[in-house]
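Show me any protein, keeping tokens residue-aligned.
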Amino acid sequence: LIIERIVFFRKPMKDMARHIHDTWESRSERKSWNAHQIREQMISQFHMATSQGIAMIQTLVALCPLLGLLGTVTGMIKVFGVMAVSGSGNVRAMAAGVSQATVPTMAGMVGALSGVLLVTLLSRRAAREVEFLEDSLTMDH
């Protein structure tokens, strides 16, 4: 989803903004209430297109630490299973469980942190592009 948004911001979004701008500029009348409503509708459609999928990405990023926690729990269950069978003397078997517990936690946190960064960048870019479009669609007074 993140890659799709990055690709969208590179070319299709620019084409869409250009098309909206050209459509607005080709209007002979840009003063009336109807023209204002058409302008708002164009901006709204552009806003929806630029922010599409960002909420889903935010949700998936929020799940990353939870999946890491799930890996931690399964690793600790393995450690406790080893301790129940062989006692606390089998350090190698316990180390494998501890490793299984820490690696998913780290992976979940890395995924969450990088995801938060990318979602923030995508959200800011979407908002900035909508503002640019709003500024370029001028009303005649």
